[in-house]
Specification:
The protein is 30% helix and 15% strand.
């Protein structure tokens, strides 16, 4: 029960006592008793206010210094979870488990039936400069059409930060350098060799090398863009030491890949990546593990990882988002900077030291109801979409999404997977209208609204499409955002402060803790159909420009 609720209950009870005393006062003596009761009420109210203010100040100070005793907040009062603790999974009895009831799991058709991974028949790959937030629209390209490159050779670098270089995921011939609006560089395309050739490195020993030597090597090798930082979700500044590193070892988004399948066979590279990251931070490497399944423990590569601090998380989406895990363990405060690489990025980073190669291999989940055979495939960063789905589309009227259906990006068939994507979702294009759809919701669909009796069928999977079932309308307050975002943030107030460019209020409301994927579910449940991810990015870019 929230403290505010307790306060209102107490006030109601006290006022009831006062009214009873007033009704009983028919004499001078009764009036004296009434005065005494009012004084008692005033004293109790004073203490309630003092305790509430103290509790709030304690939580604010705990967040400022980045400490926590229960996953992100301090309080004088015990929570319901502490009074009646939930049963931990057997495999996590000695570990810290953070549970949340807020969120919503969208169950969609199109999950791979087989857990095996096949090799994808892809010949063309590309690195897309627009994938990197803050990168110059026209980076300095170091190759030309017709050049042959090795996997790991530098393709381009940022003119603003020339130390940060971007490497080729495969070896082969550069066949296209495509441009976008205002002559910006949109794609650097490589026709891959049948047998990949790798660039050789003089790899430092991470156990003995200094942090400066490791940073210099990662910059020169082109591996630095594997790292991302909060705030802003940008490639980190190489001169800035992160407070901590956070890695989520599971993804709770719709049809997201199983990270246990991804890491299987790459355990040594993953552990080496963790060791290297531990040398690059002033704090700790935090690993978020999956405790949603009470019977099935996470992959041994995660559960038995060394040199890290592990937390288990249980709940509904977006519990797998690294931002949610970060917020509920050690939130960002003040000028804090943390790094948030993904599991496959850590594997590539570690392989630089174990294999002495830039191995941009990716296990990609091809998922969605519009695929004949959803499956896992092994390919490389920036694989061509058309070759990934060739002969596997169940229909023509489909939406191809690089990423998940909530926070992914629409891509054309002749385009390429985004740099950080590990999932290609294929669903029906929702270009249709429903007659009185708002009044007669006949077709079942994922929704948090009580209009649909989804709670009666908790395991039912839906055939998703892109129809929003409504148009953009007045930005009204419903409380739905807070129901699905397990963070101590007021999303609607934040969005409105972004829309009026109130920078001080944006920062005070916690914009630095968020990236687009964290509010993607809020956008899904939004009855006003507001583009929350787009609004948030506008705010983050504004904050970054203002410094």
């Amino acid at each position: 029960m929230k403290l505010a609720t307790k306060k209102y209950i107490l006030l109601t009870a006290l006022m009831a006592v006062a009214n009873w005393a007033l009704a009983q006062s028919g004499s001078g003596e009764g009036s004296n008793w009434f005065i005494y009761i009012l004084l008692a009420v005033a004293v109790l109210l004073f203490f309630v206010i003092v305790i509430q203010v103290s509790d709030n100040m304690l939580a604010i100070e705990a967040k400022r210094v980045g400490v926590s005793d229960r996953g992100g907040s301090f309080s004088i009062f015990p929570t319901s979870k502490e009074l009646v603790p939930r049963r931990k999974p057997d495999y996590a009895m000695d570990e810290r488990v953070i549970s949340t009831s807020r969120g919503y799991d969208i169950l969609l058709e199109g999950e791979p039936e087989s857990k095996s991974v096949s090799d994808a028949s892809v010949t063309t790959y590309a690195i897309l400069p627009p994938n990197f937030i803050g990168l110059s629209p026209i980076p300095k390209v170091t190759v030309e059409v017709g050049d042959n490159v090795k996997a790991g050779d530098i393709l381009f670098f940022d003119k603003k930060r020339p130390e940060i270089k971007y490497a080729a995921p495969v070896s082969g011939e550069v066949i296209e350098i495509n441009r976008g609006a205002k002559r910006s560089i949109a794609e650097v395309v490589i026709l891959a060799d049948k047998e990949l050739v790798y660039r050789t490195y003089d790899v430092p020993d991470p156990d003995n090398a200094s942090r400066e030597d490791l940073v210099a090597f990662l910059l020169e090798s082109g591996a630095w863009p594997l790292l991302r930082q909060r705030p802003y979700n940008t490639v980190p500044d190489h001169n800035e030491v992160p407070r901590d590193v956070f890695i989520s070892t599971f993804d709770s988004a719709p049809l997201a890949p199983d990270m246990g399948i991804v890491v299987d066979g790459r355990e040594a590279a993953f552990q080496k990546g963790l060791d290297v990251l531990g040398k690059l931070t002033a704090g700790k490497v935090y690993l978020g593990l999956d405790a949603r399944d009470k019977e099935q423990a996470p992959h041994a590569a995660f559960a038995e990882a060394t040199g890290v601090e592990k937390y288990y998380f249980s709940g509904k989406h977006p519990i797998g988002n690294v931002g949610v895990q970060l917020h509920n363990t050690r939130p960002i405060g003040g000028d804090d900077v943390v790094w948030t690489p993904g599991v496959q990025d850590v594997i590539t980073l570690g392989a630089l030291f174990t294999e002495k190669k830039f191995m941009a291999e990716r296990v990609v989940a091809l998922v969605g109801s519009e695929l004949k055979e959803p499956k896992y495939v092994r390919t490389y960063q920036g694989a061509r979409v058309k070759e990934l789905v060739d002969g596997n589309l169940a229909s023509e009227n489909v939406r191809l999404i690089s990423g998940d259906v909530l926070s992914g990006q629409k891509v054309a068939e002749d385009s390429y997977l985004n740099f950080y994507s590990q999932q290609l979702s294929v669903i029906e294009e929702g270009d249709y209208y429903e007659l009185f759809g708002w009044l007669l919701p006949i077709d079942p669909r994922p929704s948090i609204s009580g209009t649909f009796p989804n709670f009666l069928f908790p395991g039912l999977k839906f055939k998703g499409d892109t129809n929003t079932h409504g148009e953009r309308r007045a930005f009204v307050k419903t409380g739905d955002y807070e129901r699905v975002l397990p963070m101590d943030i007021y999303p609607q107030q934040l969005m409105k402060s972004i829309m009026v460019a109130d920078i001080e209020r944006m920062e005070g409301l916690g914009i630095k803790e968020l990236v687009e994927e964290d509010v993607a579910l809020c956008e899904f449940v939004c009855v006003s159909k507001q583009p929350l991810q787009q609004i948030l990015r506008q705010g983050l870019d504004k904050m970054r420009e203002e410094g």
